[in-house]
Design a protein that fits this description.
With 81 residues, this protein is an all-alpha fold. Helices cover 84% and strands 0% of the residues.
């Protein structure tokens, strides 16, 4: 296998595992939000604000990983060319 094929595998792993982690994280967070708002409906607005903030942070971490993977895919500093 060449260096380019290892870069392609690494980019796929970065994007794939990042997507799986973000989906699991948002799913768990959404479930806990539903549980918390069912227990205390008067706190629903406060919890919803915090939930959307955390969802943005989780997605931001995934998108940073996608950006790094695209950098390695298109402008790889490790391949001598």
């Amino acid at each position: 296998m060449t260096d380019v094929s290892f870069v392609a595998l690494a980019c796929g792993l970065i994007i794939g595992l990042g997507a799986i982690g973000a989906c699991i994280g948002i799913g768990i967070m959404g479930g806990k939000f539903i549980e918390a708002s069912a227990r205390q409906p008067e706190l629903m607005n406060t919890l919803q604000t915090k939930m959307f903030l955390l969802a943005g942070l989780i997605d931001a971490a995934f998108l940073i990983g996608v950006g790094i993977a695209m950098m390695f895919a298109f402008a790889n500093p490790f391949i001598k060319g």
